[in-house]
Design a protein that fits this description.
By secondary structure, the protein is an alpha+beta fold. It folds into 2 domains: about 90 residues, Orthogonal Bundle (434 Repressor (Amino-terminal Domain)); about 170 residues, Beta-Lactamase, CATH 3.30.450. It is about 45% helix and about 10% strand. It has 12 helices and 5 strands. A 5-stranded antiparallel sheet has the order 2-1-5-4-3. Strand 3 and strand 4 form a beta hairpin. Helix 2 packs across helix 4. The longest helix has 19 residues. The radius of gyration is 21 Å and the shape is globular. The termini are far apart. The mean pLDDT is about 90.
Length: about 280
């Protein structure tokens, strides 16, 4: 059963404890609100202000598990706080660990501060959970995919468009890297894991994947420099730095270019292109 009173109070207190800078929002000079406004939280939770407001007012529909998960992420809750929120809403908390898609508050705080850098948070299977605006401008909105196609390794072998973003001379290496990575995750997580399911699908549908899989190659790690072919700004060489959340097996990938290089200039241009695209121009 949903506990509307405690749910409303928990949401309100968590909202008021957050400051704009905690979630990557600017603080206006005339701001008088204690914590975040309801409309700001609603945007972060991907829902209407009215829907969120009704929850804090102890009314409205019984929120679904998907809605509660979105609220937990928008409020930057810890795993313990997320689980508490689920129980208040009358749901069983999701599983923790590698199968969880709840991003830790610390990793989110870092991502929220990367306004001028392409960055993304992905699972161990390369499923994008969150991107910065410049990250979206670089690779497109990779959070839009559903099912197995959420994994970049799966798309590499099933969607020809996925390869267009990368230098052709790197394609053989990237194929080996994705197969090696999938084999490691499938072995670590077991036969009932998503990695094992993706492997079964690819073995049945893709001859290239079968050939690479049968080499049993392990330990092919990503190169520090990734070569992109952006459709608007052209080729770029970007350094990729990785931060790991070991509890959730989530990776924060941050892409940078050497100052003064041609790729650095193109990255500045990409920020303009991305801003124009986001504004509908």
């Amino acid at each position: 059963m949903i506990d509307r009173t405690e749910l409303a109070e928990f949401l309100r207190q968590r909202r008021e404890s957050l400051q704009p800078e905690d979630v990557g929002l600017p603080r206006g000079r005339r701001r008088r609100t204690s914590g975040l406004r309801r409309e700001e939280i609603a945007v972060l939770c991907h829902m209407s202000t009215d829907y969120y407001a009704r929850l804090e007012q102890q009314r409205g529909p019984h929120p679904s598990e998907q809605m509660i998960a979105s609220i937990a992420q928008g409020l930057h809750l810890s795993l313990d706080e997320r689980d508490h929120l689920f129980r208040l809403a009358g749901h069983s908390p999701p599983a923790r660990g590698a199968v969880s898609e709840h991003i830790s508050p610390g990793l989110l705080r870092i991502l929220d501060r990367l306004h001028d850098t392409p960055a993304e948070i992905v699972t161990e299977l390369g499923e994008t959970l969150r991107q910065t605006p410049l990250g979206t401008a670089l690779t497109g909105d990779t959070t839009r995919f559903t099912g197995p196609a959420r994994s970049i390794g799966y798309r590499w072998f099933t969607d020809p468009a996925e390869r267009e973003l990368y230098a052709p001379e790197d394609h053989p290496f990237l194929g080996r890297m994705f197969v090696s990575g999938l084999r490691e995750v499938a072995t670590r997580r077991g036969p009932d894991s998503r990695a094992a399911q993706y492997t079964t699908l690819l073995l049945a549908d893709c001859a290239e994947f079968r050939t690479l899989w049968n080499t049993r190659e392990i330990g092919v790690r990503p190169r520090e420099v990734k070569r992109f072919r952006h459709p608007e700004v052209g080729p770029m060489e970007l350094n990729c730095q990785t931060l790991l959340d070991p509890d959730q097996s989530h990776l924060l990938l941050v892409y940078t270019a050497t100052p003064g290089s041609e790729s650095y200039e193109k990255l500045q241009l990409l920020s303009v292109v991305g801003a124009a695209s986001g504004s509908g121009l």
